[in-house]
């Protein structure tokens, strides 16, 4: 009868398996496993940190590009607005006028001629030369034509004097700034040392009786008062020293101002004057219901 014991080879294999199953893990093995795990963790941390740096760099680049685009657009917008700033300011501080709608308003710095003793042509005694100088400013320009739409925006009532449609329609109107110069010119003509000269000529305002001339002069005086108060100049007058031997302070009237482009506005008003000679029926008579004043307002 054969023995049931396993052969030598079977016993050796079984013994090796058994030994492997019961042989304890050494400290060296555990340390190797821990080092391997730590190394894997470090690599994972490095990969994550690298990804974070890359993401942060992408966000930074994106933010810089976005900021550059916004800054560029803002610069373009500000540059455009600055170019148009004169017109914007004019529309803000002035009542609507067809001048603003047809003329580019520009500002420039100008130093006033405020000399007390050195006279220019506008300060000369009465005569043809000084009269021509004031005429060149547009002090006596004729009215311009204002459309019905522009008239309403300008403060002209719809029932005020109108031009017949057959002659182009619209409303006759004078530019106020040139009327102010007309008034200032009349004050000059009415100065005590000029009055006799212009009164004797009997032209312009001096065609009327003295009582009307007086009313005209006081009207001009008060119009200019109101204008100066309405657009009060906030500049300041410094002082200078006079006379080296005995220094004395004196007000410096030669100050800088921000001025509009008067000459361009004057030229526009000159070009757009109504004809000097007009037909007898040039103006449309008032219609029923339209205001007709019983006296000068």
TrEMBL record:
Keyword Membrane found:
yes
- Where is composition skewed (Basic and acidic residues) in this entry? 8-20
Region Disordered: start-end pairs: 1-29
Show the stretches that span the lipid bilayer.
Answer: 56-80
- Stretches assigned to coiled coil: none
**UniProt keywords, alphabetically:** Membrane, Transmembrane, Transmembrane helix
Please name the InterPro entries in this protein's record.
UstYa-like (IPR021765)
A Pfam family matched in the record: UstYa
Q: Does the keyword Transmembrane feature in the UniProt annotation?
A: yes
Identify its protein family. Answer: Belongs to the ustYa family.
The molecule here is called Tat pathway signal sequence
Q: Supply the source organism for this entry.
A: Aspergillus pseudoustus
